[in-house]
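Researcher: Please translate sequence to structure tokens.
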Amino acid sequence: MESDFEDRNGPAGSARDALDAIGADRERLADGVAAQSRWTVPAQALAVAAMVASPAAGVGFASVITAAAVIGLFAVNAAVRKRTGVSVTRPAGPRGTAIAIGLGAVMITLYTLSMVLFFSGNGGGIALTTVSAFVLMLLGGLLYDRVYAQDVRRAG
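Model: Translation complete:
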């Protein structure tokens, strides 16, 4: 009878150990995202600000600056993947999805506004859209990373 009792607790104990290990992995992932935010979010905000500012450089150079900024965003992602071994490819929950969509809308809106300002001869107004892009992306990126970490901790 003792062996039957041990057999029943064995798999349950293994399952509990596996769930504990998954929980520990979630904690490490969430902590890793938070630790990377100190440099990734400002770098991403700077890249987006460069995109939003690019119309001020004129039509020919705007595309070069935008391409360099997009490459910079990919480089940040690659550096995170190299440092942590993890790549964040999608939001972890609905709140993160909403924030990501909002940040994308902010980026597109401010870039479009910069283009309108440039073509209407109000290039000085691009400074305001650029600063706005940096601040909104910085704050939104920090919020996104905090929500991502919370969602990862709660998953499962």
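Researcher: Any highlights?
Model: Confidence is low (pLDDT under 50) at residues 1-8.
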